[in-house]
Amino acid sequence: MSDNSNPNSKSNSTISIRSQSEIDVEIALGNPSEDNSSSRSSHSSDTSKQHNYLLKPGADGMKVNLPWIAITMTMELIGAQFTFAFAKTAFSAEMNAKPSLPDMLHDSIFGICDQAGNPMNDPNNLCVGGMSAFFHDIPDKLVICNLVAFFALAIYNGYRYSNWRRFVNLGAEYLFLHSILMILRCLTINVTTLPAPSPLCRGATEDTLPKDGWILTQIECNDSLYSGHCSVYTAITCFILCSYLPDFAKVFWFIFYLGCCFISCITADHYTVDVVVAIYLSFPICLWLSSKRLITIFGSGATRGCNFRWFCEFKLKCFEWANKYNY
User: Fold this and answer.
1) CA 200, CA 163: separation in Å to the nearest integer?
2) pLDDT at 138 over 60
3) Whole-angstrom Cα distance, residue 230 to residue 313?
């Protein structure tokens, strides 16, 4: 009898794990199943919270945690001060006297204008007029575009539920993520000093830092790895992907996001590796720390990260197919 009971218990545990995976996918689709949610008693409290995420506009229980708001604002201020201080300590006039490191995108046919709109690799004299004006201060212009889009989404989220608390909580979540990414960046920009990627920084000293290229802050030249601009782009993209926006809007935004990262590379604002590391680091940190809270804040139709509806449905089909071969 004991030999027969062990396989059964193993089979039951396998089914429970499978069911919980299906629940996660269904929550991403916006239709959690009541039947599946009761299949795993140890997760009953979590699933009940997940069901509360899906509130209709008007039936809103969202509250604001004032201590958490204060903590995130303090973290953002500390992160900003740390970033400014560590960027200055990373500066090296000796390294800026050397040429920049070889970079695939800097040296490609796309590297026409630098971040100040000056010609870079431009044998055909294309970096003039409108193109030069477009690339002038482009990194910070793209940051402003991303922040405006995030602000619009936060306002709409509060309007959708007629609850300003959802707007405030979304802002606090951004401050939390951005401060974490800034503090982590303070270490990487100081442990190894590289020649500045930008042509604007060739031969720069502390008294001759470039005046063009950015409009929000001063270019410090050697604070390159990893890209703070791309961290902002990535954090806001995670908010977009976790929201209830339709899939076509998310795909459009993701293409825009990749374009922002690409422009950071081709204008020599950063080495390509700075941008790649920012993407590799920022995506998992943002989704790991905030995806569940974002589902709560966004409410009905929100998804866990990059769970496009078609992809979630594909995963459900895979679960159904794999379940036929349980033994």
Assistant:
1) 47
2) yes
3) 31
